[in-house]
Design goal:
- With 91 residues, this protein is mostly beta strands.
- It contains no helices and seven strands.
- Strands 3-7-6-4-5 form a five-stranded antiparallel beta sheet, with no helix packed on it. Strands 1-2 form a two-stranded antiparallel ribbon.
- A hairpin with a 6-residue loop joins strand 4 and strand 5.
- The two termini are 23 Å apart.
């Protein structure tokens, strides 16, 4: 199930999927550590669970009503240091 930070029951993050999978097939995921992702990051910025299911966003994109969950910090334009942290608050 894809997580988002503004949906009922979907704000839990257990990791980042490293592959897609069909129903009832195994999925590899990372819970912490470095991962190269298929998006352009800004080195040094922190990235959070997005309001778009399955997405991440920079802190500047968080708005009122969202549940901020830190996903990690960009080490470069392609490398994300994953360190998932749920603050348990709603903005």
């Amino acid at each position: 199930m894809l997580s988002d930070n503004n949906g009922t029951g979907t704000r839990q993050v257990h990791g980042i999927a490293l592959n897609s999978a069909s129903l009832n097939q195994p999925v590899s995921m990372i819970k912490s550590g470095d991962v190269t992702i298929g998006a352009t990051l800004t080195a040094g910025l922190d990235y959070w669970l997005s309001g778009t299911a399955g997405g991440i966003c920079p802190r500047a994109d968080l708005t009122s009503g969202m549940d901020p969950i830190l996903i990690g910090v960009a080490k470069s334009t392609t490398l994300l240091s994953v360190d998932i942290q749920d603050s348990g608050v709603t903005l």
